[in-house]
Amino acid sequence: MSIATSPAGETPTANASASSSSAPLLAAQKHLLGNYRQPPFVLDRGRGCELFDTEGRRYLDMFAGVAVASLGHAHPRLVATIAEQAGRLMHVSNYFFNAENLRLAEELCAKTGFDRAFFCNSGAEANEAMLKLARRYFFNRGEASRYRIIAFDNAFHGRTLGAVALTGTSKYREGFGPSLEGVTHVPYGDVAAVRAAMGPDVAGILVEPVQGEGGVLPSPAGFLAELRRLADEHGALLLLDEVQTGIGRTGRWLGSMLDGVEGDAAALAKGLGGGFPIGALVLRERLNSALPPGSHGSTYGGNALASAAARTVLAVIEEEKLCEAAQKRGEQLGRGLAAIAERLPNVCVGERGRGLLRGLILAPGVDPRVALGRVRDRGVLLTVAGSNVLRFTPPLIVSEAEIQEALAEVEAALAEIPAAG
Ligand SMILES: Cc1ncc(COP(=O)(O)O)c(C=O)c1O
C-alpha cells in the first residue's frame, strides 16, 4: 500500500502534496493495519459541518464519519458535557450503577418507545447482543431448536463474527469461516421469500429499515409491516438494525417509525454518541428475562462518559428539532440530487433515501471511487455505498446553504467525469 501516492482504488486529492504525506502518513504506512483505504491527507480539526486537514485545507463534511457526528464537529454542548463529565466520573463498570447511565436508559426508552436498554460500544456489539437475546429468549422457554434468524441479501450488520454471519454480502464473510450456523438470507423487500423461509425454528427476522452500506436502499412501502405480521404469525421476533437509520437520521427517532412499525428489539449506535463511541440494544419488557445476570455483558458499556455524551446528543436533537431538520434538509438534498441526475444522465441515474441518509446512483460504467475522488478534490467528503452509490450522511445540523454548496460542488465534480461507454 502506498498512501503517499494513491491507495488502491482511490484517486489522489488535489492537495496530496509531498509535504502532506510526510511524518504522519509514513507512520500510517508503516504501523497501521492496512485494512482501510484512506486518502493521503490527515484530518486535524472540525467545526460544525467543516473539517480541516493538517495543511489547513477545508472540507465540507457530508459524511459525518459514517453517519455518526450527528451534531457536527466540536458542538459546544457536547464538548462541555464531555469535559465536565470526564472531570467528575468516567468509568466504574457495570458492577455498579452510574447516574448518567440510568438517566440515559430512561430517556432513550422514552424517545424510542422501548422499555429497557443494554449498553455497549458499537453497532456490531449491539447486533451481537440482539442476536443473543433472540436465541436465549427461546432457549429459556424450552425451545432450544428455535434459533434460526432470517436476514437479508445486501444487509450490513457489522464486522464481528456473529454480525458478519448476519451480513448479507458474501465478501464480508470470505475467509472467516466457518460461519455462524442458523442464518438464512433472502432478497430484501421480497415478502414471499420471507414467508417461504419462515418455520417453527425461526427465532427472529433481522432487518434494516433502510439498507445503508448496501447502497442506501429504503425498504419498499409496507415491507416492514409485512415482516411484523409474519413474525407474529410464526411466534418469532422482529429485530431492527437501526444502527445507521436511528437517532434522527431518517427524520424520526427510529427509521421504522416512518412505517409505523414496532420491533421487539432494536440495535442502535452511530449517531447516538455524536462521535463518542456508544451502542445500545433496546427491547420490550417481555424480553427482559431472556438475558439474566451473567449471560451477557460489556466492560465499557454504558460508562458515565459515553452516557453523558449520548444524553446531550438526545437533548440537542430534541431541543433543536433535528429530526424535523433531517426531514427538511433531506428533502432539499434529495431534490438537488435528483436534479443533478437529470442534468448529468451519463454519470448518474437517480437518487434515493430517507431524511439525511441519501444516495446518488451512478450510471453503469462510472467508477464510484473515481467519482468519490473527484468530489473530494472539490472539498466535499462522501462515501461509497453498495457498488454504485455515492452516500450522503451529513450531520443533522447541516444548513440549507451547506447542502446547496455540497450539491454545487458534487455537480461540478461529476460533470468533469467523461461519459461512460
Ligand atoms: C446497519 C448497520 N449495522 C451495524 C453496523 C456496524 O456498526 P459498527 O461499525 O459500529 O460496529 C453498521 C455500520 O456501518 C451499520 O450501518
Q: Please, could you describe this protein's structure?
A:
Mean pLDDT is 94; it is low at 1-20. The strands form four sheets. Strands 4-12-11-10-7-5-6 form a seven-stranded mixed β-sheet, sandwiched between helices. Strands 1-2-3-15 form a four-stranded mixed β-sheet. The protein has a four-stranded antiparallel β-sheet with strand order 13-14-17-16, covered by helices on one side. The two termini are 30 Å apart. The chain is an alpha/beta fold and 421 residues long. It has two domains: 42-74 and 322-415, Aspartate Aminotransferase, domain 1, CATH 3.90.1150; 76-319, 3-Layer(aba) Sandwich (Aspartate Aminotransferase, domain 2), CATH 3.40.640.10. The chain is globular, with a radius of gyration of 21 Å. A hairpin with a 5-residue loop joins strand 8 and strand 9 (217-218). The chain has helices spanning 23-31, 64-67, 76-86, 99-112, 123-140, 161-166, 191-197, 223-233, 304-319, 322-343, 368-377, 400-415, and strands at residues 43-47, 50-53, 58-61, 116-120, 148-152, 183-186, 202-207, 210-211, 217-218, 237-241, 265-268, 279-283, 348-354, 357-362, 380-381, 383-385, 389-392. It is built from twelve helices and 17 strands. Pyridoxal-5'-phosphate is lined by residues 66, 122-124, 127, 156-158, 208, 212-213, 241, 243-244, 269.
